[in-house]
Amino acid sequence: MSDSSKKNTRESITPEMEKKHIFGELIIKEKADKHYEAGVGAMSQSQFDKAVSCFSKAILLQSQQTEFYVQRAEAYLQLCDFQSAALDYKHACSLQPQTEAYPQRLAFIYYLQGQCLFDLGKFLEALDSFTKAAELKPCFRPYHMRSSACLTALGRYSDCLRSVSNWLEKDSQSADLLILRARLHHQLNQMTLCYHDLRSALRLKPCCPVAHALLKRLKEAAENAHQAAVDKALKGELSDALRKINSALKYDPSKAQYYLFRGILYRRLRDFTAAIEDLVLAAEFYGVEEETPQEHMQDDSEDLEEDAQTQLALTYNDFAIQCFSRGLQSEAIKLLNKAIEKQRNASELFINRGDCFFKLCEWSFALADYQQAEEMDPDNTVIWLRLAVIHNTMGLHSYDDKKYQEAADKFSVAIRYNPGEVHYYENRAKAYNKVAKMEEAKKDAISVLILEPTNDQMVPLLSSLLPGCSLTDIMSCATAQSVKTLLVEKIQAFKIAASKVSRIGRMALAKDDSHTQTSSQKLQAEDGPCVTPEVHCKLVKRKQLNQAVKRALQQRQPLDYDGPRLAPIHPVREESSAQQQAYVWRKFGGFGLNC
């Protein structure tokens, strides 16, 4: 319509017509008010159907009156017609969007609708209603909780879990919400997350019986899996044992003993990196387990930590042996350094590191380690043999450098540690001959022929020292008889010393009390060479296992091996009455010693 047309229309409306229009509006308003008042009266008399009819007539006359919609919505609400009530409140919100009371009332109507639907088992429709209520009043927790209940009833645990997690991120920590999320994790078989939520809930609400009950179930399941892992390990089924202990840690991820046990399993399976990680965790968790009685907590923590440190040393040692077997002596030394930090009183570690240095031709470092081992274990013939080899080797280098007296002195030390090795006498005889110690050279040459009659190396030397004498005359003279007597005495003394060390080992084994071993220590007893009897006795201190584990331990086949080897020791069959062998540290093959 053009501007001129609008002007003509306004000019055509006379004052009389305007009066009639105003009069008509007043009549409509009056009628609408009468219907509204009738509706209010009907509401007061609980005549809700009549009230709805009256408010509807009022709305037909005046559709922009917010209060008419509000009152009709309340009447619908009394009739449990939630859908119609919600529509009227939505209309009221559109007419007066600045009024906060209307959205809140609408949210409450959705909540009531959802609750009725939930009670009827219509969970999907109820979820829709609760979701609408939560959207209108996002900070009101009960609406969110009812949505979660619907999701749970529908089996949509993941969606429910996501909803609860979002609420926890927005809101401050709530014990009830944490317990709800823990139960959802439990339903989804996420036991580790369930455990952590329960712990967090108990820190906020220490006396919550629901959390305690669920946590007890987790711990019982963890211990059952642990016992099953012990049984599998004692039967040699290490992979199955690993699966069981993994299950135990899923139920109780802060149990230090389980990490120790799994670390030992990883070590036996030669997964040394994983073993180290678990053993470090075990050491960290000791002393923080919450259910240990206060009077025993400190002693148990110290003992378990000592076990963890010992196992770490064993793992580093075994890892070093693997590196040594692959020609990685430098890496093996680094690992043995870490092992020695954990177990400074284990002579076997110094022996192994000395072997690494020997392989790298670091004679002085090798000698220092062997000497350190000897200080710790002065009667160990294994150390004597290595000291003999290193001194002989150093003597040969001195001989090559024309330092003959120094070479002779080193050969003498080698002979002192191992008087039955013919090559040491042969080398010293040559060195003495160079420094014109003819008598000493003659005795060493005779010693060589006594130990090895077929040796032809010393015949020219003896002929030059004793010209004109036959070999028969030389070997039958008084000097030869004296040398033979002294040599036999030295060798016999060495054998007696070696047999004493062997008897000490058997005595330590006889005193082993298997009834006081922990499950992890019993696992160690099934392993190959690990620790000496002395170290083993430190591990065999405390704790009890069930009778089934004890019987399994007593009936298992023993392990046997003789001396240090580079390769793992394989079990051999023995009579059933044979006693259990004590542990010894795994050692390198060294440098050809049969010891």
From TrEMBL:
TPR repeats lie at residues 32-65, 66-99, 107-140, 347-380, 388-421. SMART domains: TPR. The lineage of its organism: Eukaryota, Metazoa, Chordata, Craniata, Vertebrata. It holds the Pfam family TPR_8. Keywords: Repeat, TPR repeat. PROSITE patterns: TPR. This is Tetratricopeptide repeat protein 16. The keyword Repeat applies. Gene3D superfamilies: Tetratricopeptide repeat domain. It comes from Phoxinus phoxinus (Eurasian minnow).
